[in-house]
């Protein structure tokens, strides 16, 4: 997390701040002596982490998404993190937004600002609030421990005020939008853009829904928060560079879906499962606009078989699921390997095995993606690193599938699927592909499965000038596709399918190293660990460590030349969210050790269903080192509760370190 910065400023007109009070202070009522006031953080900030904690029924995901999308429209960088309950009935949930004017690579280890809707929200998440952070809580439902002097406490009767604003029939619905208005006031957010986002969200629905939301937002924004926080916050502005493209804001599943459309994928089939389902829903809605179709099948095997039928016809198709569904698709994916059929398979990973942790994150399906099939059934495996990378990884997957006529896996995960990021709008005119099957006549002597070539699938309807038409089968076959039991041919065809991937490895660029280029420690990652790993390397280097980071998008086959990079470092630590296994290494680490026979490759793994915090990575990789949190002077920091009455203002006398900022 970046340092809070101080900038000079002029007092605003009609400010309620006592001119005798220290700048950046919390103003107490006029009856409170100035000596009882204490400094709060300066107004101008470049980075903040806001965590909303409540129940999934409260719509905190919607409120957090509004903040994230506002950041995107305001040229701020943003990243979100959310948890949702696995049960249909709902339960405790959070939505965390990190937004700012600098580069945001992770969702933040600690919260600067915690909103607690219920007592359990406060108790479960107060440990994530940084030392000196602000706890905004619903005083109708929460009773915090005011003796814990590390934090600033602001109590607002959120439930009662929402009912008052919307009427008794509203009960406690609309609290999320009320809080959105309150946060907008505290952080000086763009009200016009926020109200536009709210109207867009409810466009097409009954006008009363949008009007009610605007009423709740206005009530929250109008709350006299200056009575308890006279010094509010404002993000530093960065002038947009001339020629910069507009930013777009979306989650990883949306980026995957629209990346597939840009890549010319027009057909597919799937079956609903968390957290893949929203990819399917977007494609069901969008593909018909491009002349295509996405089918919801009766089950996972039906889905992959339908997708293979689309690809057989000459149109590259997509299917997808989460880990359990991919298991059910395995036999048909083997058929695609044998028949050399191009197809894209998306696996939005979640905790396993079996039904496992359906709403939590893991990276435990790498072995399944690479080796999950009977016999030797080679396939390509890509892993997206960020929301933006989801878009471009989909395009890369389509390119490889077409060129090498092979199954291609895209590995995402729950973290990428649900988090929101802002990134530059892609140059669609340069990326969009208009797909058409290649039905050109094949010359005399054409062999669809020639053992000495990389061959592409021939769709039905293609004319064979010598009249010899190929067969497509899951049986081992000769160069024309005819079934064969020949040991010699089986060995030759197995090598042919394997050598496709070897050829691909020759064209994959070696990833760039972030940070130090040699010596010290190299952190290797894949998938959604990209941001925390890079933040960890940045912080480690600031504390005198020699460290670099290398992130793999192409995880099977691996790019050639990695061994030259590994040779430059004293330690190689692979950071991934899966188990260390029987032999003490995570899944990617096991593959790298097998591939390069490099004993200095180590593992840093975890399986708690949560994303890596920067602090966790540093503690695991640099055991025994201390990486202090960012320093913010906190002597005299106040504890403020409800109406800031004098009896509720206390002074902080000791600082308790809270890990990495």
Describe this structure in words.
The chain has 661 residues and is an alpha/beta fold. The chain is 32% helix and 19% strand. The strands form six sheets. Strands 11-10-12-13-15-14-20 form a seven-stranded mixed sheet, sandwiched between helices. β12, α10 (323-339) and β13 form a beta-alpha-beta unit. α3 packs across α6, α7 (252-262) packs parallel to α8 and α7 packs parallel to α12 (387-404). It is globular, with a radius of gyration of 28 Å. The termini are close together. Residues 1-42 and 629-661 have low confidence and may be disordered.
Radius of gyration: 28 Å
* Overall form: globular
Indicate the proportion of strand residues.
15-25%
Compute the average pLDDT: 86
In which range does the helix fraction lie?
25-40%
Assign the structural class, choosing from mainly alpha, mainly beta, alpha/beta, alpha+beta, or little secondary structure.
Answer: alpha/beta
Distance between the termini: 5 Å
Q: How would you sum up the major sheet?
A: 7 strands, mixed
Number of helices: 19
Ranges with pLDDT <50 over ≥5 residues? 1-42, 629-661
Strand order of the largest sheet: 11-10-12-13-15-14-20
Strand tally is 24
């Amino acid at each position: 997390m970046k340092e809070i910065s101080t900038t000079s400023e002029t007092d605003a007109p009609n400010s309620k701040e006592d001119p005798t009070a220290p700048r950046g202070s919390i103003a107490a009522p006029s009856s409170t002596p100035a000596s009882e006031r204490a400094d709060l953080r300066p107004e101008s900030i470049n980075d903040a982490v806001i965590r909303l904690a409540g129940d999934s029924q409260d719509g905190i995901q919607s409120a957090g998404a509004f903040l994230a999308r506002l950041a995107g429209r305001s040229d701020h960088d943003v990243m979100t993190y959310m948890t949702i309950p696995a049960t249909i009935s709902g339960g405790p949930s959070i939505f965390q937004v990190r937004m700012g004017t600098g580069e945001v690579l992770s969702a933040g280890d600690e919260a600067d600002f915690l909103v607690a809707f219920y007592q359990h929200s406060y108790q479960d998440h107060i440990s994530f609030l940084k030392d000196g952070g602000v706890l905004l809580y619903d005083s109708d439902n929460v009773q915090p421990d005011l003796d814990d002097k590390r934090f600033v406490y602001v109590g607002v009767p959120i439930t009662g005020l929402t009912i008052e604003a919307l009427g008794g029939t509203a009960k406690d619905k609309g609290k999320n939008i009320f809080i959105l208005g309150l946060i907008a006031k505290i952080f000086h957010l763009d009200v016009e853009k926020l109200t536009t986002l709210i109207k867009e969200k409810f466009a097409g629905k009954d006008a009363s829904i949008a009007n009610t939301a605007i009423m709740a937002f206005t009530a929250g924004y109008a709350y006299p928060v200056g009575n308890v926080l006279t010094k509010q916050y404002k993000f530093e502005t960065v002038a947009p560079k001339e020629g910069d493209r507009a930013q777009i804001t979306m989650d990883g599943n949306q980026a995957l879906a629209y990346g597939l459309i840009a890549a010319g994928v027009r057909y597919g089939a799937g079956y609903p499962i968390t957290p893949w389902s929203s990819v399917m829903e977007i494609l069901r809605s969008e593909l018909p606009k491009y002349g295509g179709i996405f089918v919801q099948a009766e089950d996972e095997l039906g889905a992959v078989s339908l997708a293979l039928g689309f690809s057989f016809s000459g149109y590259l198709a997509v299917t997808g699921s989460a880990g359990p569904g991919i298991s059910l698709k395995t036999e048909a994916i083997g058929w695609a390997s044998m028949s050399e059929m191009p197809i894209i398979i998306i696996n939005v990973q979640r905790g396993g095995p079996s039904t496992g942790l359906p709403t939590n994150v893991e990276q435990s399906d790498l072995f399944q993606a690479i080796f999950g099939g009977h016999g030797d059934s080679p396939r390509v495996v890509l892993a997206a690193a960020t929301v933006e990378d989801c878009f471009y990884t989909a395009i890369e997957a389509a390119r490889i599938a077409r060129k090498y006529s092979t199954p291609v896996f895209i590995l995402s995960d729950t973290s990428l699927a649900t988090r929101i990021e802002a990134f530059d709008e892609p140059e669609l005119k340069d990326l969009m592909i208009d797909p058409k099957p290649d039905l050109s006549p094949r010359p005399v002597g054409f062999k669809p499965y020639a053992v000495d070539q990389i061959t592409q699938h021939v769709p039905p309807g293609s004319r064979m000038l010598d009249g010899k038409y190929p067969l497509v089968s899951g049986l081992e076959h000769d160069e024309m596709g005819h079934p064969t039991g020949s040991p010699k041919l089986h060995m030759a065809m197995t090598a042919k399918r394997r050598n496709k991937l070897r050829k691909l490895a020759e064209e994959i660029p070696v990833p760039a190293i972030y940070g130090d280029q040699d010596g010290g420690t190299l952190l290797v990652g894949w998938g959604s660990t990209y941001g925390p790993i890079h933040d960890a390397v940045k912080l480690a280097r600031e504390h005198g460590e020699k460290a670099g980071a290398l992130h793999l998008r192409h995880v099977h086959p691996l790019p050639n030349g990695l061994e030259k990079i590994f040779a430059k470092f004293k330690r190689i630590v692979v950071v991934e969210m899966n188990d260390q296994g029987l032999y003490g290494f995570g899944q990617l680490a096991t593959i790298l050790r097998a591939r390069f026979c490099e004993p200095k490759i180590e593992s840093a793994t975890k399986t708690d269903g949560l994303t890596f915090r920067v602090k966790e990575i540093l503690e695991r990789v640099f055991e025994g080192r201390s990486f202090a949190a960012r320093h913010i002077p906190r002597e005299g920091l106040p504890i403020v509760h409800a109406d800031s009455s004098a009896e509720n203002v206390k002074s902080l006398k000791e600082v308790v370190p809270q890990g990495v900022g």
